[in-house]
What does this fold into?
Amino acid sequence: MLPFEFEYATPRKLPKAKSISGRVVVVDIAFAGAGSKGFDKITLPFIDGLGERLRGWVDHHDHEEHRRFADDPRFVLATKAEHGACPEMIDPALVERIGPVDTIVCHTDFDGLASAAKWARGGVEPYDGCDADAHAVDTRLGKPSPIGERIDRALRARSRDIGLFGVVVRHLATGLEDASLWQPIDEAAAELVPIEQETRRAASSYETFEPDLAIVDVIEGYTRVDKTLLLLLGQERARISIVLDRDNVSIAAKFDSGLNFVELFDMGGGMPTRVSVPRGRLGEVLAALGADPDVASRYGAG
It folds into this structure.
């Protein structure tokens, strides 16, 4: 049994501070952004609610509120350009400096779970190359190792499965020593195959527009797709890929493209080269990207 409790979260879905046990470290959880005063409504109340029980917060997502904590040694904050993944920010010296914690709050993707496991191991990688795998997965630059890909595929297939998150953290935190834990991971990963097939079918409907945009609308005619993969497939057709669904507009470009959608769309924080905004902002998004007004009309945004 690991001597920690784990809480799985996203920037806009944090646990209640009072429900978390003891001393806390937060890893790979971005400050909430995307408008509507997300930081003030979500992140700051969580920080204030934990109070002195918050012993550390380590993250690598851009946010204008990072400067607020520049003099607080508990906060180890970087930009995505400085650190493509969070585990590479964690080492034995940092874990020792922060001191004992009882609960690790982490993001629910490979990057976040690997960060939690590395913290549980005192700042030591769960396996050789885990940091590099997290970097490859989170930036989509390069290719992760077979181990990293195996775990990432499982998490992409079951992106809301808390039970799977627990299995992955346990497997990583114990250095992959229990081979039986691969079974539930591989079972989850197998579920990604039909999702990938549907995603590639959706990608065949991409349309390209000036200036270097690829757009696909998946609001109708498709079952579940892998949005990350769909955005990557769009980037094979144009510099910027856009996926439209019923509620959101997802925009992405390559990690090393030099683009910063967080600034362009005045979002406050997030990953510069991948953002999501409400569908109602589609017209604004396309105008900011330099698209002809007819493109917005084509997709129902006047």
Observations:
- The two ends are 57 Å apart (CA to CA).
